Amino acid sequence: MTTISIIQSKPEHTSFPLYLRTPLMSYAPVRHVRRAAFLPLPAYCNRLPNELLSHIFLLTAADERDASRDPSVCVRSLASVCKRWRGVALGTGRLWTNILLTFPQSPGQLSYASTCIQRSKRYPLDIYMDFRDPDWNWDEDSHPFGLHDMEAVLGVLLPHAMRWRSLELLTDTWTPTHAFLSHTRDAAAPILETLSLSRCNAYFAAKGQAFEPAELKEPIPLFGGRVLPCLKRVSLVGVHVDWAQSELRDLLDLELKYHASDVMPSLEEFADILSACPDIRHLSILGWGPRFDGLPRAVIRLSKLIRFSLGLVDNEYAIDLLSCMSFPVLQELALEDVSSILDPVNEQDVTPILDRFQLPADAGGFDIPSDKVQILELHNVRSNPAAIERFLCCFSLVHKMVLSEPGDVLIALHPVSDTAFQACPSLTELSCSGTDSIEKLFALVSARTGRNDPGVKHLQKLHIGITRDDGVEDNQWSKILDLSTCVDLSITKLYED
Question: Which helix (H) or strand (E) segment is 59 a member of?
């Protein structure tokens, strides 16, 4: 049930002049009352010292970032209120450390970014660049953001690479990304903690698809192979580097997504990267991971990994990959059928992968402790109900599930009478979006809350993400809201009216 707290604030006691707080007993103070009534009362914020006002500005800008809004709008507004606020804002270097550059590019945008960099003094910079064009026609050579545009951006940013703390770059085509990799070869980024480079084209993860453009396929070492001592989080989406020469070490998070299979690291290079990251906690491979090239496969053991995400493109490849990985302390597992994005018509049946979870590692199964996993995510995973139920019975400690396009998973989660094996018996929290039938969700909530089976916990929390394609009729909304009598319910509309 969604609870809204309404807080009514009481006016604070203020110290007004005595003649404004007591009844008028004579005509003597009346003229003072009239004069005071027309004088502007001093704003209490003007009594704050500059240091405290500066801190309030920083908290306000942080709230804008947390709400996924552009903090620069807030900062410009704060600096435009009055002369004093402008002076405080301009003197607060940390207010100007968020550098935002988006498409379409303009000289004014670059000029403002340069101004922010100057005002940020010597504080670390957080840089976000999104040069995707929603109207792009998918022709690599016709994209309006090209090489010269990227070089102009780098001309502003590169002189301050020593202050980069986080950097995220999103592009449609390879040319701007290749320019970034080329121009940063000689750049030192000693305090860089987070790096995310994305060429947003999932098409290259299709089976048999080679990298394009072929003339720019030659890999480039990340930052010229320099050591990045503070780098902890790396996300490479459709962006390949020279895997052997790049100093990818001591990472905590690593994401490799939507690459063409022919530019991925060899199994040996992949193992070297992970062995150089002994404390890695999160690993995501969506699409293709390392190339096996017919070589012998040693098991890669990640002794501290707590979350693993795998995007499925090809069943045989996924089985080979999982067979050479070991996650002894894994707590969160996410499986996503990426092939459905690349080929929506031909759905992939992942039953061969799900069945391997029931086997011990020495009998063809995976070295994944399913009985220790606590959070399970399944996104568009397709199989038959019996195979899904057998798979879910392996996860006895899962207390939270996240589902999108769940299909028969909702049916498989129903408790079964007269059996010691239940599908996710510890499940208490469910998040579901894109369900093809709201009725299936109703039935599951009833089955999970109406039983008194000591071996199956009651469902307590339910979050529903409603998409435009869910086909929720007006008369079904009341039934959805009725679920709040059984569980703690929250609803999010994943589209705009």
Answer: helix 50-66
Given a contact cutoff of 8 angstroms between Cβ atoms, the answer to whether 45 and 39 are in contact is: no
Contacts of 84 (CB under 8 A, 6+ apart): 46
Q: Are 471 and 497 in contact (CB under 8 A)?
A: no
Alpha helices in 290-384 (DSSP H): 315-323, 339-342, 351-356
**Alpha helices, H only, 357-437:** 385-392, 409-412
Please check whether residue 391 is in contact with residue 354, taking contact to mean a CB–CB distance below 8 angstroms. Answer: yes
Closest Cα partner for 192 from 229, 225, 157, 236?
Answer: 229
- Pick from 240, 244, 252, 198: nearest CA to 225: 244
User: Which of these, 241, 357, 262, 372, lies nearest to 254 by C-alpha position?
Assistant: 241
Please provide the average confidence, as pLDDT, over all residues in the chain.
Answer: 84
pLDDT for 472 equals: 60
Is residue 305 packed enough to be buried (19+ CB in 10 Å), middle (13-18) or exposed (0-12)?
Answer: buried
Q: What is the pLDDT of residue 149?
A: 93
Separation CA 307–CA 312 (nearest Å): 16
Residues 289, 313 contacting (CB under 8 angstroms): no
Q: From CA 432, how far away is CA 489, in angstroms rounded?
A: 11
Tokens of 440: 């299936």
Pick from 354, 350, 378: which is nearest to 365 by CA? 354
**At 53, is the secondary structure helix, strand, or coil?**
helix
Handedness of CA 106, 108, 112, 118 (dihedral sign): positive
CB of 222 within 8 A of CB of 196?
Answer: no
Contact 447, 476 (CB under 8 A): no
Q: And the tokens for 350?
A: 């992942």
Q: Are 277 and 247 in contact (CB under 8 A)?
A: no
Q: Is residue 427 within 8 Å of 455, Cβ to Cβ?
A: no
- Name the pTM for this structure: 0.84
Q: What's the one-letter identity of residue 81?
A: V
- The DSSP output letter for 367 is B
C-alpha span between 414 and 36 (Å, rounded)? 72
Give the list of residues 6+ apart from residue 479 with CB closer than 8 angstroms, or none.
Answer: 438, 442
Q: What is the mean pLDDT of the segment spanning 253-274?
A: 95
Contact predicate 212/145, CB 8 Å: no
pLDDT tens readout for residues 22-76: 333 333 444 444 444 455 556 677 777 888 888 888 888 777 665 556 667 878 8
Distances (CA, A) of 317 to 236, 379, 495: 20, 18, 35
Could you give the CA distance from residue 445 to residue 459 in angstroms, rounded to a whole number?
7
| Mean pLDDT, rounded, for 144-149 | 93
**Structure tokens given for 19:** 């003649």
Rounded-to-10 torsion of CA 92, 95, 99, 102: -130
Distance CA 478, CA 449 (A): 19
